[in-house]
């Protein structure tokens, strides 16, 4: 506690004394505001925050002497209730910090208020909300006042003591918001009893419930001048209470969340109750009772005569006595009482003329020592301020546990010490007494308390703990009774604990040293476990394979972070160990390349298998080919070789006939090597498969020849597959026919009948004359009479058909000849205003219409021109220039070359008749110039340049050709700034 200092004196405000306001009789404080009641009926308010002081006269209009009995201020310093006692009875006044004068609460007329409980959680500056008033006749009332109303809103009767009517000397109220409303906690004291009330709802409903049930109270008989009740509030919540009673100071903690209900349904929210006996404050042989009490977080301030004794609430020892610097007159009358300002954390003592302030400064600095002396270790740690203080608490606990031979508990506390004892001192303690288990516990706890930056120390302690674990495991194994149930359970427990330790410390343990330790102690299982933790999966898988546990090895390989290469490395061993599980694992593993598994599959396939046993390699290869759509030739070749070795050829044929590349625009339909497949099938004597492969390789001769050795029906089917080569198809059918004729063993007539029947199966491809050479020379023609006649009839029909086709061709040739003659007489009419499609100048320079027998026209001195059936007309030179510019380079050079040749030959006139070529003139009689002109006409005038393919092709050409790069700059958008305005102009 800080020294006592005087903060207010009536002597300093002589104007109060001059007006005869009397002496101080009572006091209340809140939020740096004090309210003083005087013996003349005046209330003095002083605000330390702003230094203002003013007074209220409560005796106006009242006869006789008036004295302020009690004054109460809310924790915020806004609301004040004062009780005035005089010859006319008792009156209760209310005033607000903003008011200039108080208002009498008329509804409380005649009631002497001795205690007030404010609703600290809900009170505001503008409203008191619900307030509980305790009177001298043992009644409790509820009242509420709003600053704007300037009078009480209501007054409700709540409760009355009937069993032992006594005055309520102290009241405290707390509230808590819960899901179904507001819970109220109310504590009240009389001179001999402490009552507690609690309930949910409103205040009147809470107290109404006590009509049908007993009130919870604590009775402490004894006489005391003034019974007081105080709550200590920290961070807006009550923490503990103290009751100044005749028997002592009854105090305890407050738990407003407590759910411990008494049998009658009342909830007791008081815990850790204790009674501080007044005998501890003996002066001589007589116990002295305090006249007033104030409560801080850890101490009681007791007013005993003219001194304040500060008593620690935990140790119940007097730690300090405070003296007051009083005048002689004040000292003779003594200190009246104590008052606390909970919101400001200040305490006041007052006599008739002065007010003294007691400040609390770091009162909890030594609380850890007090709790430690009382062996309240948890509380001591909670009050420690620095690591050194905590170390001292841990040291006391560790030494106590070590002395009682509870070494494991002692190790846990020693591990928390960082300063008062060194690491070496603690470890030597356990080593000297041979407590390996305690030493291990100490190391483990020390690891938990070390910072991550202490990497070197963490690694060293982890390795030491590892060796201690291994030593413990070996000692359990070497004990004579290790077969008993207890040792077995202890052994299993330490193994489990050791593995958990390895899991937690895998990142800090030195890998090489740890594995050497595990190997040297023969802990193979733990070595594998640690290797798995460090992701050395190769060691783990190798161990499981050695143990014959293929399923466990496969489970390791299926982990997401296991390299895929380990699958290929251990595949040969695993498939020989458990083929079914291995193949199932392969089929569930993603991104597995079947090609890299071929060595393992070939090793498995080389071993003998039972006839009805499922071939696991074939199963996996079928999965890869059909489900994964694998295209690797090696995979397909291996599957084909396994099919070829099976007695049943059906699977092989289905595989060969399957088109794996079906639906693709590019790429093969199969991925195996057909030459390898053919060699393999020939070796294994799978003839039907060989026939299919020959056919697939377009070796139809070989396919049919081999098929004839197996089944003639198969040969016929193969011969019928050839559709686009009629000669080859006929050749193949002749091979079949020859084989069929030679294979018949019946009589001659039967051979002939079967041969003729075979001809029908060829669908007219073979005639009787084709198969006659296959019969013996001595065969009679009568046997073939019907077949020969049928063949002759077919030939006759073909001859007639050919005659008809010839007649049709002759008639068509006559029609074409007539059309050619008509074309020689064609013409076009050109208007005299017709313009050239290129230069837009008129085609004709004289009046009249002109006729054209062929596309090229020359009339007198006019320039040559061309007219097309579509109506477009062009000057000859314009058309040549346009076509040369628009066509490709090769065609343009060709046109220019023809034009050059024509120039060199001169302007030799062409032979014409009526403006055209001489009708019926053979091409051989044409002059060289006419031939060149004809070639030039074909090059430039075969179609109209505006309507033909030339115009269509120009659509896909760019606006600017590559050779016109210098034109690009003319298309650029350039900024243009005429004056102050900004614009863009397009330069084209």
Automatic annotation (TrEMBL):
Main location: membrane
Coiled coil: 785-819
CHCR repeats: 589-749
One of the record's GO cellular component terms: HOPS complex
UniProt KW Zinc-finger keyword: yes
Domain Pep3/Vps18 beta-propeller: 14-360
Domain Pep3/Vps18 RING C-terminal per the UniProt entry, residue ranges: 865-953
Keywords: Coiled coil, Membrane, Metal-binding, Zinc, Zinc-finger
Membrane topology field: Peripheral membrane protein
Subcellular location: Endomembrane system
GO biological process: endosome organization; intracellular protein transport; organelle fusion; vacuole organization; vesicle docking involved in exocytosis
InterPro entries listed in its UniProt record: CHCR, Clathrin_H-chain/VPS_repeat, Pep3/Vps18_beta-prop, Pep3/Vps18_RING_C
KW Coiled coil (keyword) present: yes
Pfam family, one: VPS18_RING_C
GO molecular function, a single term: protein-macromolecule adaptor activity
Family to which the UniProt record says this protein belongs: Belongs to the VPS18 family.
Name of protein: Vacuolar protein sorting-associated protein 18-like protein
Originating organism: Ilex paraguariensis
């Amino acid at each position: 506690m800080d020294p006592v200092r005087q903060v207010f004196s009536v002597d300093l405000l002589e104007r109060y004394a001059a007006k005869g306001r009397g002496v101080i009789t009572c006091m209340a404080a809140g939020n740096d505001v004090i309210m003083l009641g005087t013996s003349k009926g005046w209330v003095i308010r002083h605000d330390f925050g702003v230094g203002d002081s003013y007074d209220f006269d409560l005796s106006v209009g009242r006869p006789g002497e008036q004295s302020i009995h009690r004054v109460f201020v809310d924790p915020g310093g806004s609301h004040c209730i004062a009780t005035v006692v005089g010859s006319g009875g008792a009156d209760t006044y209310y005033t607000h910090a903003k008011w200039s004068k108080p208002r009498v609460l008329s509804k409380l007329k005649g009631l002497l208020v001795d205690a007030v409980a404010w609703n600290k959680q809900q009170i505001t500056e503008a409203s008191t909300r619900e307030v509980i008033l305790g009177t001298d006749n043992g009644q409790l009332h509820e009242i509420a006042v709003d600053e704007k109303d300037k009078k009480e809103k209501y007054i409700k009767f709540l409760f009355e003591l009937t069993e032992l009517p006594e005055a309520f000397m102290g009241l405290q109220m707390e509230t808590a918001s819960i899901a179904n409303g507001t819970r109220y906690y109310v504590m009240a004291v009389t001179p001999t009893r402490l009552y507690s009330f609690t309930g949910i709802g409103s205040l009147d409903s809470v107290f109404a419930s006590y009509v049908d049930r007993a009130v919870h109270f604590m009775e402490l008989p004894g006489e005391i001048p003034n019974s007081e009740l105080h709550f200590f509030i920290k961070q807006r919540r009550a923490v503990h209470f103290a009751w100044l009673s005749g028997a002592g100071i009854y105090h305890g903690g407050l738990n407003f969340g407590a759910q411990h209900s008494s049998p009658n349904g009342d909830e007791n929210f008081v815990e850790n109750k204790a009674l501080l006996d007044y005998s501890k404050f003996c002066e001589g042989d007589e116990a002295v009772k305090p006249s007033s009490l104030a409560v801080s977080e850890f101490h009681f301030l007791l007013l005993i005569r003219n001194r304040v004794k500060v008593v620690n609430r935990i140790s119940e020892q007097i730690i300090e006595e405070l003296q007051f610097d009083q005048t002689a007159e004040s000292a003779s009358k003594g200190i009246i009482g104590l008052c606390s300002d909970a919101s400001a954390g200040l305490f006041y003592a007052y006599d008739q003329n002065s007010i003294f302030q007691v400040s609390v400064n770091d009162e909890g600095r030594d609380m850890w020592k007090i709790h430690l002396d009382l062996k309240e270790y948890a509380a001591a740690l909670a009050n420690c301020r620095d690591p050194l203080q905590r170390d001292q608490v841990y040291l006391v606990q560790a030494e106590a546990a070590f002395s009682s031979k509870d070494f494991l508990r002692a190790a846990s506390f020693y591990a928390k010490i960082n300063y008062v004892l060194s690491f070496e001192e603690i470890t030597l303690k356990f080593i000297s007494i041979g407590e390996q288990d305690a030493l291990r516990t100490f190391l483990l706890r020390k690891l938990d308390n070390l910072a991550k930056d202490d990497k070197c120390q963490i690694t060293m302690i982890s390795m030491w703990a590892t060796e201690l674990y291994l030593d413990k495991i070996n000692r359990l194994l070497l004990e004579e009774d290790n077969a008993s149930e207890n040792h077995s359970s202890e052994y299993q427990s330490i193994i489990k604990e050791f593995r958990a330790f390895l899991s937690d410390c895998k990142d800090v343990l030195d890998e090489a040293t740890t594995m050497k330790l595990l190997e040297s102690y023969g802990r193979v299982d733990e070595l594998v476990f640690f290797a798995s933790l460090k992701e050395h999966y190769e060691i783990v898988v190798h161990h499981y394979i050695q143990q014959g546990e293929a399923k466990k090895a496969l489970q390791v390989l299926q982990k997401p972070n296991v390299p895929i290469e380990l699958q290929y490395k251990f595949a040969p061993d695993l498939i020989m160990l458990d083929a079914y599980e291995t193949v199932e694992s392969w089929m569930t593993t993603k991104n597995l390349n079947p090609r890299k598994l071929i060595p393992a599959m070939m090793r498995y396939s080389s071993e003998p298998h039972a006839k009805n046993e499922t071939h696991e390699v074939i199963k996996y290869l079928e999965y890869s080919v059909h489900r994964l759509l694998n295209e690797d030739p090696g995979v397909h070749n291996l599957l084909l070789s396994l099919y070829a070795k099976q007695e049943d050829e059906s699977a092989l044929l289905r595989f060969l006939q399957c088109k794996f590349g079906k639906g693709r625009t590019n790429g093969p339909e199969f991925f195996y090597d057909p030459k390898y497949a053919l060699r393999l099938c020939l070796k294994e004597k799978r003839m039907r498969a060989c026939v299919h492969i020959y056919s697939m390789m377009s070796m139809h001769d070989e396919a049919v020849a081999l098929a004839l050795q197996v089944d003639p029906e198969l040969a016929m089917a193969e011969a019928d597959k050839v559709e686009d080569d009629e000669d080859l198809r006929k050749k193949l059918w002749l091979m079949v026919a020859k084989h069929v004729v030679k294979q018949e063993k019946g009589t001659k007539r039967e051979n002939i009948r079967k041969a003729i029947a075979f001809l029908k199966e060829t669908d007219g491809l073979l005639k009787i004359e084709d198969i006659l050479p296959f019969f013996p020379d001595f065969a009679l023609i009568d046997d073939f009479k019907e077949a020969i006649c049928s063949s002759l009839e077919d030939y006759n029909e073909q001859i007639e058909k050919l005659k008809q086709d010839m007649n049709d061709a002759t008639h068509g040739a006559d029609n074409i000849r007539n059309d050619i003659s008509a074309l020689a007489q064609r013409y076009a009419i050109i208007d005299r205003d017709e313009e050239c499609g290129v230069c837009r100048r008129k085609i004709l320079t004289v009046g009249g219409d002109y006729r054209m027998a062929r596309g090229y026209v020359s009339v007198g001195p006019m320039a040559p021109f061309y007219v097309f059936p579509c109506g477009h007309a062009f000057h000859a030179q314009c058309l040549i220039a346009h076509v040369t510019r628009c066509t490709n380079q090769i065609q343009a050079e060709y046109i220019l070359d023809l034009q050059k040749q024509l120039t060199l030959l001169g302007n030799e006139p062409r032979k014409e008749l009526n403006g055209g070529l001489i009708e019926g003139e053979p091409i051989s009689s044409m002059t060289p110039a006419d031939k060149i002109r004809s070639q030039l006409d074909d090059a430039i005038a075969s179609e109209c340049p505006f309507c033909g393919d030339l115009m269509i092709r120009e659509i896909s050409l760019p606006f600017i050709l590559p050779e016109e790069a210098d034109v690009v700059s003319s298309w650029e958008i350039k900024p243009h700034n005429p004056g102050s305005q900004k614009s863009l102009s397009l330069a084209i």
